[in-house]
Specification:
The strands form two sheets. The protein has a five-stranded mixed beta sheet. A hairpin with a 5-residue loop joins strand 6 (about 85-95) and strand 7 (about 105-110). About 25% of the residues lie in helices and about 40% in strands. The two termini are about 25 Å apart. The protein has about 190 residues and is of the alpha+beta class. The relative contact order is 0.27. The protein has one domain (about 10-185): 3-Layer(bba) Sandwich (Pyruvoyl-Dependent Histidine Decarboxylase, Chain B), CATH 3.50.20.
Length: about 190
């Protein structure tokens, strides 16, 4: 009888961010990952489902549990530019349900968006995806603050959060990279 293999389900997640600057784009990305503390792992991009009962841990604890070279799955948002003074942003938003059900993680990269606007945007995306999954009725044309109240009143979406990294492009034209990530542990 053949043995069936099932991919592991993450039990923990941590959130981190960083910024890097260098004359080479790839090196600026490496420095952003280094600033975020995750440069020594083989990062695999995943779509953004937060497994039920996945515990949020600190960056320090998460990095301590990983071994250099280890494959780590994550939702990663990265933006780069060599345009002087250009405002870059990368953000991760999370929406967690009240019950033992999966949640959503959204990512976004942009230009000209402040940290606050990027944070609201990624939280809105994650909360909207979760609300649709849960069958919560809402008007998508309403602003996020109004919809957030509807989500909370439904008794299903309990928490949202975000992590955002912004930076202005280097004034001398060096590549600037910003990264935000949700990294999973098995």
């Amino acid at each position: 009888m053949p043995h069936e293999w099932t991919a592991p389900i993450p039990t923990r997640v941590f959130f981190t961010k960083g910024v890097g600057r260098h004359r080479y784009k790839a090196q600026s990305a490496e420095l952003a990952l280094r600033h975020a503390g995750i440069e020594k792992f083989n990062l695999v991009q995943v779509s953004g489902i937060l497994p039920a009962r996945c515990k949020i841990i600190t960056v320090t604890e998460g990095i301590r549990r990983l071994i250099p070279g280890q494959v780590a799955f994550g939702v990663i948002s990265e933006s780069s530019s060599d345009e002087p003074n250009r405002l870059l942003s990368s953000g991760i938003g999370v929406a967690m349900p009240i019950r033992d059900q999966y949640g959503y993680i959204a990512r976004h990269t942009g230009y000209g968006l402040t940290e606050e606007r990027t944070g609201d945007y990624v939280e809105d995306m994650a909360a909207t995806m979760l609300a649709m999954t849960l069958g919560i009725e809402f008007d998508p044309q309403r602003n996020y603050d109004e919809r957030k109240e509807i989500y909370r009143m439904s008794g299903n979406v309990v928490r949202t959060r975000n992590i955002v990294q912004t930076a202005e492009g280097d004034k001398n034209g060096l590549w600037t990279t910003v990264v935000a990530a949700a990294v999973f542990l098995m």
